[in-house]
Specification:
- By secondary structure, this protein is an alpha+beta fold.
- The protein has a single domain (about 5-105), classed as Winged helix-like DNA-binding domain superfamily/Winged helix DNA-binding domain (Arc Repressor Mutant, subunit A, Orthogonal Bundle).
- About 55% of the residues lie in helices and about 15% in strands.
- The chain has helices at about 10-20, 25-35, 40-45, 50-60, 85, 90-105; strands at about 35, 65-75, 75-80.
- The chain has a 3-stranded antiparallel β-sheet with strand order 1-3-2.
- Strand 2 and strand 3 (about 75-80) form a beta hairpin.
- The chain starts with 9 loop residues before the first helix and ends with a helix.
- About 15% of the residues are buried.
- InterPro entries: ArsR-like_HTH (IPR011991), HTH_HxlR (IPR002577), WH-like_DNA-bd_sf (IPR036388), WH_DNA-bd_sf (IPR036390).
């Protein structure tokens, strides 16, 4: 998703980072479970293609929402953790969860 101009406002900016499909579910998993490996995320997000997950994680990392931490260098193995900026999205994800509980039937 292209980066929004500041004139588009804060909602457009937020959506430029978290508005792509699967992104909020990745955030939900990281908020709920803490640090997660790529495979852990793929296993919990039934139906996400590995390329899509990789792209979403790269976007979140580029925007300072997640950080990739290596826990093994040979072979290289990493886990993804939320930054402070990412943790600040917690109330947004919680509001979405509460809205979904209220109106999903």
């Amino acid at each position: 998703m292209p980066k929004q101009k500041p004139a588009d406002g804060p909602v457009a900016y937020t959506l430029s980072i978290i508005g792509a499909s699967w992104t909020c579910l990745i955030l939900r998993d990281l908020l709920t479970h803490g640090a997660r490996r790529f495979q852990d995320l793929q296993d919990s997000l039934d139906g996400i293609a590995p390329t899509t997950l990789s792209e979403r994680l790269r976007t979140l990392e580029k925007n300072g929402v997640v950080e990739r931490r290596f826990y093994s260098m040979n072979p290289p193995r990493a886990e993804y953790v939320l930054t402070e900026k990412g943790r600040d999205l917690g109330p947004i994800v919680a509001a979405m969860r509460n809205w979904g509980r209220k109106y999903s039937g």
